[in-house]
Amino acid sequence: MEEERKTKMVRMKSAVRVFVLLACALVLMGCKNKEKEQALARAAAAETALTKAKADLTKAEGQVASLKEELEAAKGARDELAQQVKQLTSERDNAIAQTQGGREVVKKLGTQLSEQTDKVTVLQKQIDGLQKTIQDQLAIIKQQQATIEQLQKIIEDLKRAPAPTITEPNAVTTGQG
């Protein structure tokens, strides 16, 4: 598009120069007054066209400069966006890596939890077995305490009973005697 404008401008400049040269050539040839006036009028028209063409050229150059500025601004924005995309991509990749790491940790913790649950189950069975053993032992202790109390009672009864005499070594005390 810019090349088309340049080509048009070059053509326009060339056409204006040709008109100016023709006007000057006609004036210099010494045409009659009428022809001279026409030549001057054409020269004036050519000069006006040249001035307009210069103004159009200046305007077009200004537009080209403005478009160049816009292009540079667009390139800067594009570069900035590319940098942001690069940064966001890096952040995304880091987040994915962290997520993978987190998944591995969760999986590992799940495995550990399962192992701990199994251990707790085994320990609970041991505790239940030990509690049964304790209950059995308590029952045995109760029986033994009852036996001890009976034996202590018998011992006390024996201490109160009269001592057997030597002549009667095999005599049994019946308490009537």
**3D shape:** rod-shaped
Q: What Rg, in angstroms, do the CA atoms define?
A: 62 Å
Structural class, from helix and strand content?
mainly alpha
Distance between the termini: 148 Å
Q: Biggest sheet: strands, sense, closure?
A: none
Provide the succession of SSEs. Answer: HH
Regarding quaternary structure, how should these chains be classified?
A: single chain
Q: What is the helix fraction of residues, given as a range?
A: over 70%
How many distinct helices?
2
Strand fraction band?
under 5%
Q: Count the E strands.
A: 0
Mean pLDDT: 83
Low-pLDDT residue spans: none
Describe the structure.
The protein is mainly α and 177 residues long. The chain has a domain at 2-122. Helix content is 88%, strand content 0%. Helix 1 (2-28) runs antiparallel to helix 2. The protein is rod-shaped, with a radius of gyration of 62 Å. The protein starts with a helix and ends in a 17-residue tail after the last helix. The model has no long low-confidence stretch (mean pLDDT 83).
Topology, please?
Elements: H1 2-28, H2 33-160
Highlighted features:
177 residues; mainly alpha; 2 helices; 88% helix; rod-shaped
Task: Write a brief caption for the model.
By secondary structure, the chain is mostly helical. The chain has helices at residues 2-28, 33-160. The protein has two helices and no strands.
